[in-house]
Specification:
Two copies of one chain form a homodimer. By secondary structure, the first copy, chain A, is an alpha/beta fold. In chain A, α14 (about 435-440) links the parallel β19 and β20 (about 445-450). Chain A has a seven-stranded mixed sheet with strand order 16-17-18-15-14-19-20, with helices on both faces. In chain A, about 35% of the residues lie in helices and about 20% in strands. The first copy, chain A, has two domains: about 5-125 and about 140-265 and about 470-505, 3-Layer(aba) Sandwich (Aldehyde Dehydrogenase, Chain A, domain 1), CATH 3.40.605.10; about 270-450, Aldehyde Dehydrogenase, Chain A, domain 2 (3-Layer(aba) Sandwich), CATH 3.40.309.10. Chain A is globular, with a radius of gyration of 24 Å. Chains A and B meet through β7, β8, α7, α14 and β20 of A and β7, β8, α7, α14 and β20 of B.
């Protein structure tokens, strides 16, 4: 049962008068529960509790933190259909996706729990003393990693579980020893409250200090701004729009003590389709990409929004086929009316630019929050002349650029902003041209993919989900995979420290 | 022979009309050479050359970059007395220090050269494919680290060699594959030009691309501002004042594409002197600390500016003895008249606060740019009431806080801003109280030292030279030690990439 209240530490709290409701996009009507926006007093209480909890939480063993993470996973699973029903009612996403995303969320929590069972994740190093060194003796110096302090996590709209209340940011921050305050997403506050209740149950069962987790709701910018400006908050995680992420980055940079903001923002994920693929594998490529472009109604940060090709008759045929196959896939519901509005208006920005042709678009009457999948095309020279075509159209939309030759195709890559991913589809005969293309992509992206699709982000050690701005605000870190824990820690050295007083992993 | 010109890549250049001269602080008069401030055209040319050089430099082998770094070290040594004489004439520092710092500089270059001979520094990881995994096959994903792009390094005033033109920032950035543009320090532009000439010679001898290094001069903020705002600059390294570092941080955060600034700024480096040390080892501690406080005329970022004690008769005796021993050390020259002015005015800010007593201060006539070493003292309660006492007095100055008990001593630590180091001097009988003190220090510093002095920063894997703001602008990184290379790189993943096209370290 959800209450519409905030969790300030372990306590449900609703001191304010401002409320909001979530929307069922499939039914295009509001869900019943009113969610109470946290007051400034509640925000402050949550941060003060987190700061107090930090003093205890950072010093407990990795085994205890791992038990906490595993207990969160258990409590999420125990919510069973109550959670998946709520998820579907607030997102318009189907049951299979709800179950899959729950599996990913639970899997991430358990992966971070496994990671912290040993101290290896701290990258501990030991330089032993050399008392006889000339001209000065060398001290014994040992380095470890320690958590930064209370972390604020902004839940993402497009992953109500896996990048939300108990998603990758929360799991990695809790694993590192940082308390977490989640700013719940206003579009799925019910899902958020259910997951928060699971985290609080897990915290109580495993004896975690009160304040290790809070869940704050609010539909505007007031609550998020107050959280990021609070002096006792030490880092921020965010997944969402460039405008939202940049606003938080600016707030954090303007503080008396600036703090790191890890914002994973916009990306149109260029896909280079080499000529021999269009020659040899046009149809299977069109099938694969029609599916990737419409997967999850295109609402993935790694959705392929830009296809780069060399112009020609076969390319025209390929684009027509891709458009037909994309349009033939039944339209699906988007997350929320706001997301649908953005899809329509950003799509219009791109398709109204000179030289852009709509090759295929879902026509006719569809449900209000469902998406008209669209494939558009433009020449390389028109694209190069007009940065408005770089606009991200969040949803099932892809713009195909037809460059006149490989030189112009590389120019198109060079003209792009930072991206999460770059993909190359190539046959053996294309290999001689790949190093130049890979080199150009490397300057722009965090991950390159060969003969695959950018959608689907594996949670593993070698994953990089981040890239040059504005794909993320700090390309030196990843938001997905075990490396995500590095965002919340700093190096710390002990010099000549008595062995009996060193932490376990440094003895 | 120095020319007063900029190096724009391999070319000496002096297109502007604005010049400045350096000062010999011992003689208190200007040195002869006029240095030409770079014009905006020269700044732009240096960045454009660096951007072009990056395309080549990032792809050459580690062995080639190591040869370049070792050649820089060789060319610096080949400058012989010309360099150390110039160093002394621009810094007032003695010959032994000049030679020692040259040794450190050369050692750092060679240490980074050794580091990049293998690909281990990239923290490469491989997750192999699992084609049979259900419900989806797992891709082959491999992660490496790649350089960010052109880096601007601001030379530090207090280390004309080791944190300057070819210092730790430059060595680590060049090692990572980033071209470097140094903003030379206006107080030691001659030393900077000599070292720059060595780097350019080394670049030419080892076949590096033109633009891999430039050396830009200028005495105000114009040149530095232009460099940090240039869209093709991708990261900044800085060592200096809080005001200077914060100004650069703000400029970088306000860019359309924000870039990381690693600024190592202010620190007063608290030293906790436990009661049993004052009881058992008062005199030897006073000898050690009088020496540490005055070392290099106190002009180290790790200088012990704040001693924390528990009040008592023995403590009073210790402070008097420390003051006598400090004052007895012959006054030494400071780096520059501006540094001397700052030492005097910041010293007056601290000593003029209510409750602060000057226990000992060098009196009488001394040379104009020499420093009056000072030991002051204040009660814990007066210190807690007045944040002006946290002011860094850059030079041979230390404020002793006499807390009424251990609780108040921990409160004093809790009241501090971020610091580079924290030191604890303790006897076995003090050990039961150490965990509380270490815990308080851990929240505030990057390195804790037991029964030693904070001055002296070892270049090794386990060193952390950085700390919470304002000790540094990003506590997640270190400015000294091999870890410093991590400031200039980002993770990059290859998914299902053909083995023959992978870089060496990932095959």
């Amino acid at each position: 049962m959800i209450t519409g209240k905030n969790y300030i530490g372990n306590q449900l709290s609703a001191k304010g008068a401002t409320t909001h409701k979530t929307v069922n996009p499939k039914l295009n009507k509001e869900n019943p529960t009113a969610f109470f926006q946290a007051t400034s007093e509640e925000v402050n209480d949550a941060v003060e509790l987190a700061d107090q909890a930090f003093k205890v939480y950072r010093n407990i063993s990795g085994k205890q933190r791992a038990d906490f993470l595993n207990a969160i996973a258990d409590e999420i699973l125990a919510l069973d259909n109550e959670l998946t029903d709520m998820y579907m009612s607030e997102s318009g996403l189907p049951e299979g996706r709800a179950q899959g995303e729950r599996g990913r969320t639970v899997g991430q929590l358990r992966a971070f729990a496994d990671l912290i069972l040993t101290e290896n994740w701290r990258s501990n190093t030991i330089d032993e003393a050399i008392p006889t060194r000339q001209p000065f003796p060398k001290s014994d110096i040992r380095k470890t990693s320690i958590p930064l302090g209370p972390v604020v996590v902004f839940a993402a709209s497009n992953f109500p579980l896996a990048f939300s209340t108990a998603g990758g940011d929360t799991a990695s921050a809790l694993a590192s020893g940082c308390p977490v305050i989640v700013k719940s997403h206003a579009m799925h506050s019910g899902t958020g409250e259910l997951v928060a209740s699971a985290i609080i149950k897990a915290a109580e069962k495993t004896g975690m200090p009160n304040g290790v987790f809070s869940n704050i709701t609010g539909s505007g910018r007031v609550v998020g701004t107050a959280l990021v400006k609070h002096p006792k908050v030490k880092a921020v995680g965010f997944t969402g729009s460039i405008a939202g992420g940049r606003a938080l980055y600016n707030l954090a940079a303007e503080r008396e003590e600036p703090i790191p903001v890890f914002a994973e923002m916009g990306s149109i994920n260029p896909v280079v389709v080499m000529p021999n693929v269009i020659k040899n594998k046009a149809e299977e490529t069109a099938v694969t990409y029609a599916s990737s472009i419409t997967l999850g109604t295109g609402q993935f940060c790694t959705n392929p929004g830009l296809l780069l090709t060399i112009a020609g008759e076969k390319t025209d045929d390929f684009v027509k086929d891709l458009a037909e196959k994309t349009v033939a896939i039944a339209p699906q519901c988007m997350l929320h009316p706001n997301i649908k509005d953005g899809f329509v208006s950003n799509g219009e920005i791109v398709t109204s630019q000179p030289g852009v042709e709509i090759v295929g678009k879902v026509e006719g009457n569809i449900e209000p929050n469902f998406a008209e999948s669209t494939i558009a095309a433009v020449s390389g020279s028109d694209f190069l002349a007009n940065p408005k075509m770089h606009t991200e159209v969040f949803g099932p939309f892809s713009l195909v650029v037809k460059a006149k030759d490989q030189g112009e195709l590389v120019e198109v890559i060079d003209s792009l902003e930072g991206q999460l991913t770059g993909t190359v589809l190539a046959e053996k005969e294309d290999f001689t041209n790949l190093p130049t293309i890979a080199d150009a992509l490397q300057s722009k992206v965090g991950r390159i993919i060969f003969n695959g699709v950018p959608t689907g982000v594996e949670v593993c050690e070698s994953m990089t989900h981040g890239g040059p701005y504005p794909a993320s605000s700090d390309s030196r870190f990843t938001a997905v995979g075990l490396g995500a824990i590095k965002r919340w820690i700093r190096p710390f050295s002990y010099q000549d420290w008595p062995v009996e007083l060193l932490p376990e992993g440094l003895k």
